[in-house]
Amino acid sequence: MIALVKGQKVDLTKAHPQLSSIKLGLGWDVSGSSQNVFDLDAVVLLIDASGKIISDKHVIYYNNLRGHSVALSKDNRTGAGSGNDEEVSIKLEEVPADIEKIILAITIYDASERKQTFGEVRNGFVTISNENTKQEIYRYDLGNEFSTETAVIVGEIYRYKGEWKFGAVGSGLEGELKGLCEQFGLANLPSSFYVKTASPVNNNSTIKLSKIELKKSGDTINLSKTSKTLGEILVNLNWNQQNSSQSGGGFLSSIFGTNKSGVDLDLGCLFEFKDGFKGVIQPLGNVFGSYMDEPYVHLDKDDRTGASTNGENMKINGNKIYEFERILIFAYIYDGAANWSQVDGIVTIKQQDSPEIVVRMDEHRNGFGMCAIAMFENINDETFKVEKLVKYFRGHQEMDRHYDWNLNWVAGSK
């Protein structure tokens, strides 16, 4: 391991030809007397050739943990414990060509409200390791030179003559995450962009909800823990086989109709384990999975008509959450016109003794046969964060590439 100093630039891939994936470990201590817990966050900005953040989707942070071959491992809201507080993984060989530079920063969440600055943060560092061999290559200690800053640019990974290099920056600024984004050309974002998602549902609350609906794409909620584990997670897909304007009975009567001549809508998922194992569960190809054995996901049947009042059901073994990195729930139209506005699809996520989580496929894009419905992301091996997506694609491969699964797809049938 080589210790770096501020301003130093070093080779990554040129000096280490076999280096394809790196892990950045960030850590810090707080020595201040603030009455509030310091909540520091790792942030990654993906920059184009003009020196600007490409889009809001190119900010990898607590509300957007992965994208474009970059993944943030967790959101540590207390900084408790030794070692790395947060980690970032980057698959260098897969970073899209339009990304010229990757900025690594640390920000203080809600710093102005809590009257906190980096003047109270000590022993900040970043380590760079070969993710495949676990060998630590470089380490950069930030020092204790900051005072009023609420964000610090730790370093930058950038392309140079076809190779990747790292530069130790150690530059502070004020304005928290908002100020950091604006410095790199991403302004006028809604205030909700910077607000952290809600904590898990509290089953001991005096208010007992029977259902919780994620209404807009991007809405999130954490699954509840039952006893010490998540237990069984049931994902149910149901849909309308009749034109709602003709049924006259409203949504529920049409969704339980018995018309057998409509759309064949299939439920499936992409899964990714922490060890890199990836795959798909779906009726196409008869890949129904297993609940007790890998991949700990099981699809019970293929309802080809929508006539079943139970629709299609997928069980996820929440007791094996420590194996999972993420799960993408999707549906596709196997047979019939890609007319989502008449399908009225609805996904319900059920846990024992917990409110049902409802995701309606109500943001239509007719003509596209595939819909990414919801993303499950592992939060500290304790729960899944569920995010409503409802984003439409032409097929499996296009959806796969959008969410960085990178599986090999071939035509199939059932």
Q: What is the helix content?
A: under 10%
Could you give a short account of the major beta sheet?
7 strands, mixed
* Average pLDDT, all residues: 82
In quaternary terms, these chains amount to: single chain
| Record field, number of beta strands | 26
Uncertain parts: 198-208, 243-261
Question: CATH class of the largest domain, please?
Answer: Mainly Beta
Shape: globular
In CATH, the homologous superfamily of the largest domain goes by the name sav2460 like domains
**Helix/strand/pairing class, anyone?**
mainly beta
Q: Measured on Cα atoms, how large is the radius of gyration?
A: 23 Å
- Beta percentage is 35-45%
Short description:
By secondary structure, this protein is mainly β. 8% of the residues lie in helices and 40% in strands. The chain folds into two domains: 2-194, Lipoxygenase-1 (Sandwich); 211-402, Sandwich (Lipoxygenase-1).
Keywords:
mainly beta; Lipoxygenase-1; seven-stranded mixed sheet; 8% helix; Tellurite_resistance_TerA
Provide structural commentary.
InterPro entries: Stress/Tellurium_Resist (IPR051324), Tellurite_resistance_TerA (IPR017115), TerD (IPR003325). It comes from Metabacillus fastidiosus. This is TerD family protein. It holds the Pfam family TerD. This protein has about 425 residues and is mainly beta. The protein has 2 domains: about 1-195, Sandwich (Lipoxygenase-1), CATH 2.60.60.30; about 210-400, sav2460 like domains (Lipoxygenase-1, Sandwich), CATH 2.60.60.30. Helix content is about 10%, strand content about 40%. It is built from 6 helices and 26 strands. It has helices spanning about 110-115, 175-185, 245, 250-255, 340-345, 395-400, and strands spanning about 1-5, 10, 20-30, 40-45, 60, 65, 70, 85-90, 100-110, 120-130, 135-140, 150-160, 165-175, 210-215, 220, 230-240, 265-275, 280, 290, 295-300, 310-315, 325-335, 345-350, 355-360, 370-380, 385-395. The strands form 4 sheets. It has a 7-stranded mixed β-sheet with strand order 1-11-10-3-8-7-6, with no helix packed on it. It has a 7-stranded mixed β-sheet with strand order 14-24-23-16-21-20-19, with no helix packed on it. The longest helix is centred in the middle third of the chain and has 8 residues, at about 175-185. The radius of gyration is 23 Å and the shape is globular. Mean pLDDT is about 80; it is low at about 200-210 and about 245-260.
